[in-house]
Amino acid sequence: MVTAKLWWLLKAVNPAKSVKAPTYFQVFFGVYFIAILRSFIHRNEIDIMKNYLITICILLSFHFSAQQLVPLNEKAYTDSLKTAVTRNSNNASKAYAYFLLSDYYRNTDSAASKNYLKKGEALSLKNPLSQAKYLYYEGQYFLERNKEKAALFYQKALQELSKIKGQEADFLKASSWYGYGITQKNKEGYPFLVKILIEKSIPQVEKYRNNKSLGHLYSQLGIILTYNAEFKKAFEYNTKAINLLEKNAPNTPEMFFAYLNMTSNLCYQIKGDEAGKYLDKAEKLIQPYPESSSNASFYYGKTLYLITKQRNEEALPMIEKGLSYTRKYNQNLLMQMFYLHKYDILRKQNKLNEAKKVLEDILTDKTLIIDVNNRKAFYQQLSGLNEQMGNLSEALKWEKKYSKLNDSLYAENVSLKLNTLEAKFRTSEKQKEIADLNAEKAQKELEINKKTQYLWMLGIASVFLIILMISIYLYTKKLAKEREINHAQKLKEIAQKEELNITKAILEGEEKERERVAKDLHDGLGGMLAGVKINLSAWASQHLENPRQEKFSEILSQLDHSVTELRNVARNLMPESLLKFGLETALQELCEFYTRTDLHIDFQPITINSEIPLGVQINIYRIVQEILANAVKHSEAKNILLQCSQSDEIFMITIEDDGKGFAEDSHQKTKSMGIHNLNNRVNYLKGKMEISSDDTGTAITIELNTHAIS
Q1: What's the total number of domains in the chain?
Q2: Is 0.70 surpassed by the pTM of this model?
């Protein structure tokens, strides 16, 4: 179950508009600051709090990424995989080994990673599960490079895995859903990622119970809850993960990172002694493998623990050890985090020259300063450091760089800071010249200043009066324009309301006529034809001999087929399942109706409310029916994906096909009655429709309001 805060966030997600959530490190260090602030309240360590604020501000723009899990004994792991691809004769096993090698090198050697991925793909062509694995690991490859491409490959993997049954496929589904959730986190926010974990990933592996994948997912959920300051709930999931892994996977990377995640959670709560116990357990796991890249994460956890215990002097050697691993394995993000903690400690120790050198090294590396906000924060820190050290000219240089990047909302404050620094600089350079000025000159300057002040006050008063007069004129003009706009808006609303009433009358009349015709066809003409068939069958059995009966049976089969077609027409006019069982069942039957041997339709309903007004359900059904009919008739597609979801009063329809597509403006120019009716129904439900098409297929997204009509 999700905590109250995250559940509120989940309920606030709007399917139509992406809500940009805080980035991983914004929340990460926000939580860290909350925890540190608690200790400051008790300890009154204001200077230390300022230094932590520095670290928090600089790291605001880092991004979330999933932990890469490889065995702690990395050399033995990679050697075994390379042996497998040379000695194994099974293509599926060799392909999987190539995929694991690609995943291992994806963050350290992109060329090698891509090469292994392509080799695995070549061996996967005739195996559906191997093809699905290729799509998943292609998504892994693009996860830190291009999230849109990664999301596309994860979705393709899920589509292929939906056709495969078994434990291995289920585990891969869980990983694919989680990867997809990570790609969408910056658009949809943490609630979406929590929803993916709870509703998609965890249920896929929970049915197999005692396995390390379930423990890892519990641990990942614990991380997210920690970053959202849900410490108690995060502790519960971390505990579940640790208990499960200690019993079933005690010497795995999943176990190692679960210990580190629990260490972080306890450090943020200023529970250093408890955190140390889990850190010791992580150390026992990593100690036999000094060449493992995971050592960098361990030393970062130890740094965090020592800072929490205020043992900053001991933290510095841990930082240096961690840096040696990050340099060796190209872990640039973690490297910068170590540098920032080092800078923070050195500044607290008043080792300003060393602290300054750390900041300058970070600027030289350029990994962190790609983001303009990080760069601005570094410039400001360097300006403050140099001013504190008495290097006023250098402080001025960095302050000027900072001012160029600063937001216009803070322009006045930046200008004031610049003036202050410039005044300090001029004062220090011209102290001797100022000291030589005599009293007479000072008196004259004082008189001039008084006259200047008087003239300035007079000028300011004049400007104020002019501005006031202009403001009154502009305000009057604005009021007149607003009245004109309001009048035009009212006329437009009246016209829209009238058009809506006309559309409503047309659609309601159309549905009533459809219902009447369907009833007449099904109950009247259909019944009559069925009766005719029965009577003809009885007559033939009494009056016709066997040779003639066979010919007559063919005629009866044609009549039977005609009755079936008649009932299909009646069902299309008014589907009986919609009235009896609701919208979701009716849409499922509609997809089955249009499915062919050469056409697969994948229907994905997500939380469709059965209490939608019947009039709205009928219009939604007609919209989907029209789009599917057009796709089947014109697109020449092999696969169609139909996804329907609902959040409160918003109903979303997404239809994608892999057909031949059409020109983007052709649907606007066409005179087709179907497109015209489709637009009418969308407008009737106060919705909007977006169509995207090229030679790889067509995607249609429709957003409707289920409360548009009563």
Answers
A1: 3
A2: no
